Amino acid sequence: MPENSSDRIARAAGRAARAFRENQTAERDERARRTPSADRPGLKDRAAQAAERVGPVRERVGHAAGEAGRAFREGQARDAERLAEVSTRVREEDEAQRAQRRESRARELEERDAAEAGRVHPLLRLTRVWWLAVGLLLAALGGTFIANGLRAEARGGRVIDPLTGLESVGPLGGATGQYTLGGVLIALALVTLWGWIGLLRRRRSAISTLTTVAVLLAIPAATRPNALFLVLGLVMALGAVLLWLPPVRSRVRR
After folding, report:
1. Vertex 215: Cα angle to 210 and 216 (nearest 5)
2. What is the pLDDT of residue 166?
3. DSSP track, the chain
């Protein structure tokens, strides 16, 4: 049967494909037979080419890392500045609120003082009178001690303690001891009168001042159980209690 052109074309294509496969197989066999020493120059060339291709990439990566580091540091600096601004603003707002509260408190007290003009709470009035009497009592006792010291220095002889009625002996005995005790009592009397003036002006500091005086004068009542000392300690304790009662504390300023 005569062959047509399509059969010839198909046979030619098959021969070409078979020749290509044989050529590929021969090249693979040739590469497999080559020694490592013969292939080493090619490897070096390919490594050099790869290094040349990687170099720009490495530079770009380093540049990007540097940019990221600078951006991070700049962001940290901006965050620190914003935090400092916020802290300053919060501190200023707190100070303004505290000042506003103080002004509001002072205004309320002034309004209450104006509303209570001529009217004083009975406990506050009693506390004022009480501590005025304590201050005058301390001043009188101090004057008595000093007068006793002057008399003892002028006449000589024994010195009788005006509080205990006994002979004054020991380090505080004699005229010098009487002067010392009198000076201490007069100083406490002055502090007490200062606290009393604070009560008249409705100052909160007067409470702590008079409480300190009460504690100092109550110590001898506990250390030397004498009748007069016990009475003085009781007077001091009652005065301190009056100072810390709510009707008194709420009517004094800070």
Report:
1. 95
2. 62
3. ----HHHHHHHHHHHHHHHHHHHHHHHHHHHHHS-HHHHHHHHHHHHHHHHHHHHHHHHHHHHHHHHHHHHHHHHHHHHHHHHHHHHHHHHHHHHHHHHHHHHHHHHHHHHHHHHTTT---HHHHHHHHHHHHHHHHHHHHHHHHHHHHHHHHHH-S--B-TTT-SB--STT-HHHHHHHHHHHHHHHHHHHHHHHHHHHTTBTHHHHHHHHHHHHHHHHHHHS--HHHHHHHHHHHHHHHHHTSHHHHTTSB-
Buried b / exposed e across 67-77, counting CB within 10 Å, b at 16+? eeeeeeeeeee
Q: Identity (one letter) of the amino acid at 235?
A: V
What pLDDT sits at residue 139? 92
The pair of three-digit structure tokens given for residue 136, joined into one six-digit string: 């005058």
pLDDT of residue 38: 45
Mean pLDDT per block of 10 residues along the chain (254 residues) reads: 56 63 64 54 61 60 67 80 86 87 79 62 85 91 85 69 62 73 90 89 84 85 71 86 82 68
- The pLDDT value given to residue 60: 63
Predicted local distance difference test score (pLDDT) of residue 192? 92
The structure tokens 């010195």 sit at 159
Dihedral angle, C-alpha 83, 89, 93, 96, nearest 10 °: 140
C-alpha span between 19 and 12 (Å, rounded): 11
Residue 1 is predicted with a pLDDT of: 47
What integer pLDDT is reported at residue 205 of this predicted model? 84
How many other CB atoms are found less than 10 A from the CB of residue 135? 22
Q: Residue 129: which of 3, 244, 239 has the closest Cα?
A: 239
